[in-house]
Amino acid sequence: MNDALQFIADFEAHYQYDAGFMKEMVQHAPNAYDHFQQFLPMARHREQLPLEVYWIAKLAAMMVEDCGACLQLNVRMAREQEVGIGLIQSALAGGKQLPEHLQAVFHYAQQVAGQGNVDADLMQQIQNRYSRGQLLEMGVCIASAKVFPTIKRAIDEKPSCALIKVEVQ
């Protein structure tokens, strides 16, 4: 348990993120935390997608799923991997200023995360540009964005899910 709490404390300090829900899992549902830890590599998986495509999809999906804190965390993670400030700011502003291919990724990820139908023309555009493996990887990227805010909502963690102004540095 102490190793897990130290990992969480280091994570919080590194990303300036309140991971209280993770500490609660360690304390109240340690087996769930163990499984959650096994999920984390999936949430970070990127093998076939270009870096910018991955992060635009992740941020777009997180904008659908989250109210701010997890989005801020992902902005920091994207910056840590050297995704450009301008791209991140464009995504946070709704994607209109992104390059055309990233606009398509942004809207695709938001539509997939929103659980509605993906516009047929947009789907065709995405399918024409990305391989089946890349589409599947994008699906994993989008799906994983849902897990963190869902767990926080499940325990009614409203203070950490308050709307915030996301900073890009």
Tell me about this structure.
It is a single chain. Helix 4 packs antiparallel against helix 5 (69-80). The mean pLDDT is 93. The longest helix has 23 residues, at 132-154. With 169 residues, the chain is mainly alpha-helical. The protein has helices spanning 2-15, 20-28, 30-43, 51-65, 69-80, 85-92, 100-113, 120-129, 132-154. 70% of the residues lie in helices and 0% in strands. It has a domain at 48-161: Up-down Bundle (AhpD-like), CATH 1.20.1290.10. It is globular and about 50 Å long. It contains nine helices and no strands.
Q: How are the secondary structure elements laid out?
A:
Elements: H1 2-15, H2 20-28, H3 30-43, H4 51-65, H5 69-80, H6 85-92, H7 100-113, H8 120-129, H9 132-154
Helix pairs in contact: 2-3, 4-5, 4-6, 4-7, 4-9, 7-8
What's the overall average pLDDT, rounded? 93
* CATH architecture label name of the domain at 48-161: Up-down Bundle
Count every beta strand, where a strand is a DSSP E run of 2 or more residues: 0
The proportion of strand residues reads: under 5%
Cα(first) to Cα(last) distance is 34 Å
Element order, helices and strands? HHHHHHHHH
Shape: globular
Provide the low-confidence segments as ranges: none
> What Rg do the Cα atoms give?
16 Å
* Biggest sheet record: none
SS-derived structural category: mainly alpha
> CATH superfamily name of the domain at 48-161?
AhpD-like
Key features?
AhpD-like; mainly alpha
